[in-house]
Amino acid sequence: MAFNPTPRQAGLIKAAIFVLALVPLARMVYLTLTGQLVEPLEFITRGTGDWTLYFLCFTLAVTPLRKLSKWNWLIKLRRMLGLYMFFYGFLHFMTFLWFDHFFDLQEMWKDVLKRPFITVGFIAFVLLIPLAATSTNAMVKRLGGKRWQWLHRLIYVIAPLAILHFWWMKAGKHNFTQPIIFACILAVLLGARVYWKFTKASVAARA
């Protein structure tokens, strides 16, 4: 049976997710300020990067979960999850720009061009910017539904770039467990979309 929350229940669910999504950041700040970390910079860099990937998976999981569960109200959570993906991605980038390069844009750019894993991560972040900037209802109306949908399909480019960035970063320590897990999760989430698209096209062709 489909679960259809009342407006009040839906609001409480969104509020709970909003607060919970800030817990990882609060933990990073707390551990850093209390001096409990041996390598705070590395911890924050890895933490913000990991949570960017988590929210990428959460965002892409909304559509499959909605289709399988018939909980159409889940679509109302996708924008917030996507913005949190950008938020943690922004923090990940700012950690790199601030603590690694002290806002020296020239040195940062040299690093981006020199190291491939930073290059693809930077590209993925840049592609996230127009998605975050056009996330409001006003921008949907201004762009028009179809153009807005085409723009937000950039997420299907961003996802593999993010995985490649993570893979190359872990390759230095020959630790591929996490990248493989993320790659498998995203393969399932994206593969489900491809399957449903071709199934729909096949049904339409037989009609």
UniProtKB/TrEMBL annotation:
GO cellular component assignments: plasma membrane
This protein's name: Protein-methionine-sulfoxide reductase heme-binding subunit MsrQ
Any GO BP annotation: protein repair
Entries under HAMAP family matching the protein: MsrQ
Compartment list: Cell membrane; Membrane
Oligomeric form and interacting partners: Heterodimer of a catalytic subunit (MsrP) and a heme-binding subunit (MsrQ).
Protein family: Belongs to the MsrQ family.
Parts of the chain that traverse the membrane: 12-31, 51-69, 81-99, 119-138, 150-168, 180-196
Alphabetized GO MF terms: electron transfer activity; FMN binding; heme binding; metal ion binding; oxidoreductase activity, acting on diphenols and related substances as donors
Pfam families: Ferric_reduct
Domain Ferric oxidoreductase span(s) in chain numbering: 49-162
Membrane topology: Multi-pass membrane protein
UniProt cofactor note: Binds 1 heme b (iron(II)-protoporphyrin IX) group per subunit. Binds 1 FMN per subunit.
Keyword Nucleotide-binding appears in the UniProt entry: no
Function according to Swiss-Prot or TrEMBL: Part of the MsrPQ system that repairs oxidized periplasmic proteins containing methionine sulfoxide residues (Met-O), using respiratory chain electrons. Thus protects these proteins from oxidative-stress damage caused by reactive species of oxygen and chlorine generated by the host defense mechanisms. MsrPQ is essential for the maintenance of envelope integrity under bleach stress, rescuing a wide series of structurally unrelated periplasmic proteins from methionine oxidation.
Keyword terms of this UniProt record: Cell membrane, Electron transport, Flavoprotein, FMN, Heme, Iron, Membrane, Metal-binding, Transmembrane, Transmembrane helix, Transport
Cofactor(s), by name: heme b; FMN
InterPro entries: Fe3_Rdtase_TM_dom, MsrQ-like
Gene: msrQ
